[in-house]
Amino acid sequence: MKRKVLFLCTGNSARSQMAEVLLRHLAGEHFDAFSAGTAPEQVDPRTIQALEDFGFSAEGLHSKSLGDLGDQFFDFVISLCDKATQECKNFPNASEMMAWDFEDPRSRSGLKPFEITLREINERIKMFVLVQTK
Q1: Residue 115 zone, left/alpha/beta (φ > 0; ψ -120 to 50; rest)
Q2: This prediction's pTM
Q3: Which residues constitute the domain of residue 123?
Q4: How far apart are CA 56 and CA 36, in angstroms?
Q5: Number of domains in the chain
Q6: Is residue 127 classed as helix, strand or coil in its secondary structure?
Q7: pLDDT tens for residues 48-77?
Q8: Is 7 helix (H, G, I), strand (E, B) or coil?
């Protein structure tokens, strides 16, 4: 039976969208991946571009709020920013909570901040999959 993973960030516009797509691609046979935001915004076009440049389809991506998830139960709820961690630290429908803090690519300096964030999340998800599927 697949385990359910929810990725949370504030806007559900970049990091959590990336994580959802990556987990589906890397281990969709083991996990059902979801994402949501505590204050959802539109998916940032640079998120879509970074995913497509990485070779993933971004078709159908849209921001969701926690309320859109109803009363679903999740095996893992993984926050991707400190703000979501604080706002959701007592998430009632989760077996396990994890906090992964990634810098918001919208405010990150340097070249290709969305691509860098995507690569960092990809590495963390690969480790998560390795540990959770042993």
Answers
A1: alpha
A2: 0.93
A3: 3-132
A4: 19
A5: 1
A6: helix
A7: 999 999 999 988 899 999 889 888 999 999
A8: strand
